[in-house]
Design a protein that fits this description.
single chain, 41 strands, mainly beta, 22-stranded antiparallel beta barrel, globular
């Protein structure tokens, strides 16, 4: 493309995650946004979703500055209680779930350097993706352009990233290596990954796409959180116990997938299969005396995990009463089997065996979804999904008072969703929708009981009711406006029962409520300027009083009705102003982010303070024959503000705070040769 063509994406971007079909987001009665390739890669490190998803209202992505625990992502308040990994959202990349059947997922292996787009679906229709779908994040890898490119990035705190991509018609191979010494002590990390996508030539009515991903992150250090006093004294310090037990995490993952599509007799068939393997070993900081209790599972978690699944979908474009009608029928099955071992962490070294079991979880779902344009200005969308999630544990560690803790638990739910959209004009629509969702406990939440060992199969799945109403408007070719009101009522919310002795147990805590408003705006302004705004206001609270046990040593506490959900800011704002001078290839951007205070535990005993920060970026692009060169400079946290970027929800040792870096700088360059 020429420099003049490198502008912001069209407002009516095409998305697939809402209906599993390529459609204009403007024609769907749902809240959905797409972050494009330029926004993901231009002037960015291309490692964390926190770099780019701040542009999406309703989504909060907190970078923990701790690569041993992944990002903290919430969608309309779902996912806030996760202390590691991502839960409460459905994560997908190129049709392969990055969320496991239990609802827990990771985004660490997402290759943003080769992503064409990241779609983010919020609201009722997320439930059509199954268990724990408070929202959907769908990463789509680019098909690949004929050429080869390489980029090199250097940043503060010993951060660097080297990447290379090779593209041919229909195929892409992307590799990268990332390293950081970390903003805090004992927080170094290293990641290597490869992502490949290949569309194989077939008959005109068929297509076959192969995908592969390899990820490795050895010995990533975990600095743990800090108390308020520690953070105020020195935000770069590490908790002493992290050094004593050398807290760290190693991960390795390999996965393959294939997607086939075929058109016949008015139908389109989509079939996909995938499989993968993931190894995780994590060293926790738990006193030796606690680990040596007969029923304790130790402080080294070792997971050897295999996973796989498949999906089948049939779509037909037809007519109903003379109006366009699209019917989609589909089913999915996925399974995860892991060998779970636990060992004593003897000051950073593995000692005696404390847990030995085989865990498995299988999820199966069938769904029907239909879209009917039943009048000139009306579009109706409705779906129904039946879900079954089955957990099973086989215990092999039966020693003395530690008995056989084998068991199983099945969860079932039928989740409907329905929406309607009315075109006020060709450039403005209003819509409303409704849905019911469910969220099973994850294996991490089932892992412990308050007494004895084994899984806590007494936990029920939480159930939710979602309502949404919104407006979408395109004002000429230059401005897009989206606004949505939402209301979510949940029963059997899963919350902390006991948080002591180095482990957390969970209970069903009754009812919760999440309600608020989202506003998104994207404008292409005169003289080369572009502007973007994403704002969310959210009230998320417990409606019922419940009791729990917190802190070390353990203290019984009461969480009163009306307490705010921890890990969820009441408001978040992102604003961006970009300028591009096409003739010279110069570009510059000013960003501003503000997040309201975040409660750190269920009883709202403390909170991370409200903060606002500004970032700037500038760069040049040059074209010469088939070559394209670009360079950039980025400065984050211009005012060098001290703040907590995220929190460790309900931490038993009161180390709730994960400090964000002060002022930091990053420079990068890229060269691309087309052929």
């Amino acid at each position: 493309p020429t420099l003049a063509e490198e502008t912001v994406p069209r407002a009516d971007s095409v998305v697939v995650s809402a209906t599993r079909l390529e459609q204009s987001a403007f024609d769907l009665p749902v809240s959905i946004d797409s972050v494009n390739k330029t926004q993901l890669q231009d002037g960015q490190l291309q490692v964390n979703l926190s770099e780019s998803l701040a542009r999406v209202p309703g989504i909060v992505v907190q970078n923990r500055q701790n690569y041993a625990q992944d990002l903290q992502i919430t969608s309309r308040g779902f996912g806030g209680r996760s202390t590691f990994g991502v839960r409460g959202l459905r994560l997908i990349t190129d049709g392969i779930p990055a969320s496991f059947p239990d609802g827990q997922g990771q985004v660490s292996h997402f290759d943003l350097g080769s992503a064409q787009s990241v779609e983010v679906l919020r609201g009722p229709f997320a439930v059509m993706h199954g268990n724990a779908a408070g929202g959907v994040i769908n990463v789509v890898t680019e098909r690949g352009e004929n050429g080869i490119s390489g980029d090199f990035i250097l940043g503060s705190f010993g951060t660097n990233r080297i990447g290379m991509k090779v593209g041919v018609d229909g195929g892409l191979l992307s590799t990268s290596h990332f390293h950081t010494d970390g903003y805090r002590q004992h927080s170094s990390a290293e990641r290597a990954q490869m992502n490949a996508k290949l569309a194989l030539p077939m008959a005109a009515s068929s297509s076959l796409t192969l995908v592969a991903n390899v990820f490795a992150s050895p010995a990533t250090q975990d600095p743990l959180g800090l108390t308020r006093a520690q953070m105020n004294a020195d935000p770069r310090q590490v908790a002493a116990t992290a050094l004593t037990f050398d807290t760290r995490k190693s991960q390795a993952q390999q996965q393959l997938g294939a997607a086939f599509a075929h058109k016949f007799s008015g139908w389109t068939l989509h079939a996909a299969v995938y499989g993968g393997h993931r190894d995780v070993r994590q060293y926790l900081a738990i006193p030796l005396a606690t680990q040596n209790v007969a029923t304790h599972s130790g402080a080294v978690i070792d997971l050897d995990r295999n996973y796989g699944g498949g999906s089948l979908r049939l779509t037909r474009d037809a007519s109903l009463l003379g109006r366009p009608f699209t019917l989609t029928l589909g089913g999915e099955v996925e399974r995860m089997v892991e060998r779970r071992l636990g060992f004593i962490n003897n000051n950073g070294a593995i000692a005696g065996l404390k847990r030995d079991e085989d865990d498995s979880v299988t999820a199966a779902g069938g769904y029907a979804q239909a879209e009917w344009r039943f009048a000139e200005r009306w579009i109706a969308l409705a779906g129904l999904r039946a879900n079954r999630v089955a957990f099973r544990a086989v215990d092999f560690f039966i020693v003395g008072s530690n008995g056989d803790d084998s068991g199983r638990r099945n969860y079932r739910a039928t989740t409907p969703a329905a929406g309607i959209l009315y075109r006020l004009s060709p450039a403005a629509s209003v819509y409303a929708n409704y849905g019911r969702g469910f969220e099973t406990p994850t294996f991490a939440e089932l892992a412990y009981r308050t007494s004895g060992a084994g899984l806590n199969f007494g936990l029920n799945a939480s159930r939710s009711r979602h309502l949404e109403a919104g407006i979408k408007a395109l004002l000429g070719e230059r401005l897009r406006l989206n606004a949505a009101l939402f209301d979510v009522a949940t029963r059997d919310e899963i919350a902390i029962q006991s948080n002591a002795g180095g482990r957390s147990t969970f209970k069903n805590a009754g009812r919760t409520h999440r309600g608020g408003v989202e506003l998104g705006a994207n404008a292409s302004l005169p003289m080369g300027f572009d502007a973007l705004l994403a704002w969310t206001r959210l009230e998320a609270k417990f409606l019922d009083t419940f009791a729990s046990v917190a802190n070390t040593p353990a203290v019984a506490v009461t969480v009163p009705a009306g307490s705010k959900l921890p890990g969820v800011p009441r408001s978040s704002l992102y604003a961006e102003l970009r300028w591009r001078h096409a003739p010279s290839g110069f570009r510059a951007a000013l960003e501003f982010q503000r997040k309201a205070r975040v409660w750190v535990d269920d009883r709202n005993s403390e909170a991370a303070d409200t903060y606002g920060i500004a970032n700037v970026a500038a760069g040049f692009t040059q074209l010469a024959d088939n070559w394209r060169f670009s360079e950039f400079l980025r400065i984050d946290n211009l005012s060098n503000r001290r703040y907590a970027g995220s929190v460790v929800v309900n931490d038993a040792n009161l180390r709730f705070y994960e400090p964000a870096p002060g002022r930091s700088t990053m420079v990068g360059m890229q060269a691309k040769l087309g052929f």
